Fold these 2 entries.
Entry 1:
Amino acid sequence: MVGGHSSFDQDKNRLAEYETESTEYSEKQGGGTDCYNSKTGEFLGRTPSSWRKLTSFFVLFSAIVAVIWGLCMGIFFQTLDFYIPKFTQQSSLLWEDPGLGFRPAGGLGYQTKTGQYKGYSIYSSLIWFRHGGDGNYDRLRANLDKYLEEYEPGFFANQGASLTKCDFESKPITKDESCEFNKEWLSDAGSDIKCISSEYYGYNYGRPCILLKMNRVYDWRPIPYDIEEIRNHTTMPKKLKSDIERIWEEKCGDRSWGEDGLDPCPYLNMVWLHCDGETDADKENIGPVTYTPYRGFPGYYFPYRNQRGYLSPIVMVQLKNPTPAVLMNIECTAWARNIRHNRLKKSGMVHFELLMD
């Protein structure tokens, strides 16, 4: 009994001590909210000194990460040139696949799921317009005007210092020079409806003009065909071959080029351009096609090396009599010895649709 009574007293004393400690702990924790404890000075469970240590750690950690990232970016930029691409010539994916672009662009636009109209889509390849006095070609005209702004004299600062007049018989340009291109050349003096803004680029009269350009590929230079290669070419369109033959007879046929007479005719130094319908029906509906100022892109505009004020050569392709109310699939191809054609990759060509109401 004595031993048992003593054990009971010990347990009772321990329980009393535990209750006393619990009461003191509760009183110690009291006097504040969940965010701030006024007795201990803790905020969100941490004392000010603990917060200072945690903040210092993350500031120091972030600073070290930022310094390492900055060093990596600095080393990376040391391997790049702001004017010359890292991959050029055969190492470039675009070296043998220069593409073509066209204007006007925008298509019909699109609508959101809520039915809100979002304007014209840059991903559309459709050129649709209604010609005549009540036509809707103002947007197409504005799109062409916008693109041709850089061909205005003085658009680039100090542009005249790097531009030089070039022709087929002039000497090749130096690395820092580029050939001038005057947008007035896009006006065909022999055409009754010209590809100029004041005549709505022909859209008002149902004779639309489409601007074609070659995408810039650094240091790329076309390798032109000679006349025998053109005559023996098996896939080149017959209309293009006949037009080149006519140019050859007018410019090259009665002259010998070079001291030994073996140098190629400079008037064949071209990236030839040809536009036609994709199917037989499209070819019939597209009607006659003219090209201004040249039948393609003169070779003396190449290569492109990021020259100051460089202007890409452009061609205005005019459809003289397209069939109204018929959707036409049109394909334009560029022709040179080092240009490959691939419809899937759109290399060496461009596709668009035309619908005239």
Entry 2:
Amino acid sequence: LHKLAHRAPQPQPGAQESDEMSAQEAEAFITQRRNNSQGRLAEIAAVTKVQDVISRSGGNVVTIPAGATIATALEVLSNNRILSAPVMGATSGSLLGMVDMFDILSDVLSFYGQRKDVKLDSGDAYAIEVWCQDVKKLTEDGETFSKELISEVINRSDNNPLKTIQIDAPLTALMGELGQGLHRCIATDLNGVPTSIVSQSDVIRFFARNHHLLGPLGQKTLKELNLTNAMPASVHLNTRVLNAFHLMRQHSISAVAVVDASSVLMANISISDLRGINAQNFSSLHSTVGEFLLKFSPTTYLPPVAVHPDASLELVLLKLAVLGLHRVWVTDHEDRLLSIVSITDIVRTLAACMAFGAVGQGDGCNGSG
């Protein structure tokens, strides 16, 4: 606004100079540009191809051979800082499916579920406590877990089935898939050969780069878009980390908030923190959330990125894109946890807007939260 104010027409000789007036003119200029751009994003999205959205830093597809062990697969995911990868047939070289951290988590919890006195979906804190106390059993389970073939856990979670899309397909087609909760698709050339992976994060970056075309929709708040209604799962620092991971699997969520006794947001633990698990440290699952984070993800103790319910869609898009986040937490002005907004929520909202032809207008495209 300050720079635009200095570019505003200079007052005529004798006229009263006013910095306040210049700022008002600048704000009016921005508002006019925003209103004039309404509807243009939907048009651009319709002619944009999938290949135009794929991250420039992405490129080659990281794959895992079907004969690899879970230990090897986790190493591949961790080294490439990714949460999923296609599994390729050893002899055929064809795609067998996708494996992601939810599949790995489901496999970890299957050891806990093998106890005769435990029902996996019950979330029985006492039963988890009993299992976690048996460090010897945890160590043995860790050895078995690490040696399992990755092909045995493909889409075990039923969260991310294998989906492909041609690189010349329109962005609107991709939005139709990702808007339903699918996290990523494999982009192929015209011959069906995988060339890259396109994810919800790529879509977020595309809309962030073109945020000026959102029009009035970009200025709508999370609350106005009904994106603050989700009740986030939360744990405390002294909660068993297995309980936190169980919550993720039970509710099909990728992260859990860590709060204090007053519900003040302190940290978060996500499914990506599980990438460091191997045969040697499998018994770390008996530790508390606080202990686990210090060992596997010390940077998680940094204050999580949070916004207030009155934050604009444009602001949240920019935060997600620039910081490479999968979610932002929603808190009140005393940092107490209120809700969570994931990239799935944002993509779903934008997809709905485009379906209603309301991008830039803000009508008929409220999110479900």
